[in-house]
Fold this sequence. Notes:
Blueprint: E1 2-11, E2 14-20, E3 25-29, H1 36-46, E4 69-76, E5 93-95, E6 101-102, E7 110-119, E8 125-130, E9 137-139, H2 142-146, E10 150-153, H3 168-173, H4 179-195, H5 201-216, E11 242-243, E12 246-247, H6 253-267, E13 272-276, H7 285-300, E14 304-309, H8 313-318, E15 324-329, E16 334-339, H9 347-353, E17 362-366, H10 369-388, E18 399-403, H11 409-419, E19 424-427, H12 436-441
Parallel strand pairs: 2-16, 3-14, 3-15, 10-13, 13-14, 17-18, 17-19
Antiparallel strand pairs: 1-2, 1-4, 4-7, 5-6, 5-7, 7-8, 8-9, 11-12, 15-16
Amino acid sequence: MMLRLLRIEHFRGIESAEWAINQRLIGLVGAGDSTKTTLLDAIGLVLSPNYNPQFTDADFYGLDLSRDIVIEAAVTDLPDNLVKESQLGKERSGVMPDGTLVHDPVDEAEECLVVRLTVTPELDPTWEVVRPGSDDARPISASQRRQLGFFRLGERPDYHLRWGRGSALSGLTEGVEGASSVILDAHRGARRAVFDADPNALHDAAMAAQRSARDFGAAQFGQLRPGLAPGSVTSAHTLMLHDGDVPLSSLGLGTRRLTSLSIQDQAMADGSIIAIDEVEHGLEPHRLAQVLYHLKKRALDGQLQVIMTTHSPTAVKTLNADDLVVVRSDGAGRTDCQNVPDDLDNVQGTFRSAPDALLGRRVLVGEGATEVGFLRGLIRHWDAERISDGRPPAASLGTVLVNGQGSTQPSQRAQNFQRLGYPTCMLVDNDDRRIDRSVESSE
Length: 443
């Protein structure tokens, strides 16, 4: 599966956004509060495999309850079972190479389903499949959305290390002969072990409860005793992966996140769309680089689409320039998702030499180390004045210093950041007149 178009109206910090997507590996970069995580949340909700995600008034842009939330997603590379005529085959649309939607998948248009989530001010969500140019809509169930293969590596990685309803481990064993009996036998064995235990403090508490219940006239129990609740194949939350005798829940966050991701990946045999918020969370730089390398390899094989946010310079340096999408919110609710233009000069070198700049709001380019030192001194002086006046320092404004490394590179780097929408200023001296033309072209 592959997400090709995302449209959002009136959701959290986004009043409007429309993003045409043509990449399988996407690193969302930009300053804090540019709505990167909100984009992932929107994707997760419109493609949600759950039938009852919870919404609140805070999910409406500006808490304005006069309008509905609307999120639309166009998904291609659809599973065969989902596009049967008995399923949603008659609801297929087309998406053009530039991301434009058309009513039918004809000519150069790629077959897709357009899924729309609408949330009313009464907090009632509705999922439908719609087609451009038509008012007709057909409901899409949670089980059908599950076939779109979306999952998100979130803040609770331990869930997929357990066998339980909806977990990736349960997906790996679903329908496998003998798997259900192993889980049920484990439950039943554990129940028998508790029943057969020698009298202990739990039994004393049960007997006290029995006497009190009798006095209240609740019931005439024969024998209250402690026991585990009867389990089922889908309620095995206490059954989890162990490394030898060590439960994986006791390992470090980075290891748990990566193991959870690997299990979810394996559970999606027909391909999947993975969303990862702050991919670097809990990972050392060398493990982050390995994760990105592996995800890129899987994406290039056409097996995955990965959409992730990052605030890590290591991630920026590891990814290619054409993997990155700069996200920017204009302060009035409009979110813009900009791919790195193909015609930027030496953009890969710019990003790898100054990855921090992509994570800020404003860029100051110094011609070389002397100019950068001068700018750093000015910023420290201005920060002291601002802090004494009760105003925020330059760091809170997202200002990032970039060393231009001399010659024509400063103007080249300044132009690259300016083209990507970053307010950019360049400081050069006048000791090398050979760069005059390059400097003039940067104005």
